[in-house]
């Protein structure tokens, strides 16, 4: 694989937006279905707090498959949310999800060296006492946790599609993903910075403008909520171009995805 130029990172964002614009309602419905399912799982005691992380690779493939179908001119249906549960790779994807969970816990655990455990309590406890925040280095702890998690994120980034589409075993998928991201480091740096600007500065700027114009919290929420959903869905759509830029189009030797009854008409 040739090294990708830094500007490729911005192209991934634009390609994600282009995919979203082809079927905005359909892919947004898929995302909202995913969110409602995660909220429902969150009701379960103990395991409900763990399942969303364990199932990340499983549902990541739902959005990757959705983008693939959009690219091929096929309609996206909410039933795609369950596509990985019918995959022979399901067990490996769940094992990858367990590694997601362990890596996240490890990164947050390391941050306790910086803030004495305030960030750990915020992530694992029912709530954070304001007294725990006073005098703690919570922001620094979040930065440390993010930096510690970066190598794991590199190994996880392409692991799910490599497992599901290329039928790689878990260890091989993690290995290939890590070094693929490392080789495209400049492109991923631009990609990450682009989403940092879009996801943080854009909503902050819009909320400030709306607050100056209306000074009404209800109006601000009414505007920012759909904006945040759209930006998140576009970001999900942009994951697919990062894969195709590195590994090419997905192989066609896997079983076809079942169409919904509406698609048969």
TrEMBL record:
<feature type="transmembrane region" description="Helical">
    <location>
        <begin position="219"/>
        <end position="239"/>
    </location>
</feature>
<keyword id="KW-0472">Membrane</keyword>
<feature type="transmembrane region" description="Helical">
    <location>
        <begin position="187"/>
        <end position="213"/>
    </location>
</feature>
<feature type="transmembrane region" description="Helical">
    <location>
        <begin position="140"/>
        <end position="166"/>
    </location>
</feature>
<keyword id="KW-0812">Transmembrane</keyword>
<protein>
    <submittedName>
        <fullName>Membrane protein</fullName>
    </submittedName>
</protein>
<feature type="transmembrane region" description="Helical">
    <location>
        <begin position="31"/>
        <end position="60"/>
    </location>
</feature>
<dbReference type="InterPro" id="IPR047798">
    <property type="entry name" value="BPSS1780-like"/>
</dbReference>
<keyword id="KW-1133">Transmembrane helix</keyword>
<feature type="transmembrane region" description="Helical">
    <location>
        <begin position="93"/>
        <end position="120"/>
    </location>
</feature>
